[in-house]
Design brief:
Elements: H1 2-5, E1 19-22, E2 26-29, E3 41-43, E4 50-58, E5 62-67, H2 68-74, H3 107-119, H4 123-138, H5 171-185, E6 187-192, E7 195-200, E8 210-218, E9 221-228, E10 231-233, E11 242-245
Helix pairs in contact: 3-4, 3-5, 4-5
Length: about 260
């Protein structure tokens, strides 16, 4: 590694290589990567198209990237209603925006989708999903998100049409708001033999330039967070967790050797 990088590691650089295998949700490549390269684009040099985003690797074994076409598919017009990602494409013959699971929008599903986007470096797309959910809540009575609502497309002056019989309030739906805030703030807590840590890696969109979180409970205490312009301040912390400004470490990649 020293021969290749000359002890200079904190630089953005082109890392030539090739895609070695394409799987259902990811692609494997053999580009030379370093710690901290997660979120880097895997680019087709002929077309200039981003094929995916690198997220993990195992030295001398394989590197992994999430396929960008999956993200594009979920946010295509037939899947994205404006309020969220539908449970079924509006182009499908069985699509029914008023059905329970064949065209409706579920807030908690969308929170999981946004979490996946952010996990693999698609910060802008994660913020888009969060904005759709927040906009839906803004137009509902008491800002209460229902269990699900109709997958009708969003238009000017429209509102999310509730599914008949949907639970309101509903724990999954209410929890999706908290989850989306944690996703935008990049909050991840972990405890192991070496101690307890809370990682904070904010990627706040332009429509949410600053965020203050008070009384965030962890361990036997709580902490306050103030996030603005990519910076973090911790006014109080009684949790005994170390608060780290940066991304949480990824789990080790699986060994793909036969």
């Amino acid at each position: 590694m020293e021969r290749i990088y000359g002890r200079t590691y904190n630089k953005k650089r082109l890392a030539p290589g090739g895609v070695t295998r394409v799987e259902q949700l990811s692609l494997l490549h053999d580009c030379t990567t370093l710690g901290g390269n997660s979120g880097s684009a895997v680019v087709d040099l002929d077309s200039g198209e981003a094929l995916g985003l690198h997220f993990s690797g195992k030295f001398m074994t394989a590197n992994y990237a999430v396929r960008s076409d999956i993200v594009k598919r979920l946010l295509a017009d037939d899947m994205w209603s404006g309020w969220g990602v539908r449970t079924l494409s509006s182009d499908h013959p069985a699509y029914n925006p008023f059905s329970y699971q064949t065209g409706s929008v579920w807030p908690h599903d969308n929170a999981m989708i946004a979490g996946g986007f952010r996990r693999y470096g698609f910060d802008t797309e994660a913020a888009k999903v969060a904005k759709g959910t927040f906009d839906a809540a803004d137009r509902l009575s008491g800002y209460r998100l229902p269990e699900l609502f109709a997958g009708l497309p969003k238009s000017e002056a429209s509102f999310p049409v509730q599914y008949p019989g949907a639970n309101v309030p509903q724990a999954w739906a209410a929890g999706s708001v908290i989850r989306l805030i944690a996703i935008l703030a990049g909050i991840h807590a972990t405890t192991d033999a070496s101690g307890s840590r809370i990682y904070v890696n904010p990627a706040l969109p332009s429509w949410l330039p600053a965020l203050t979180i008070r009384n965030l409970r962890a361990g036997g205490g709580s902490l306050d967070l103030v996030l603005r312009d990519g910076k973090m301040d911790v006014p109080t912390n009684t949790t005994k967790f170390e608060v780290i400004h940066g991304p949480a470490p990824h789990p080790k990649a699986p060994d793909t050797r036969a």
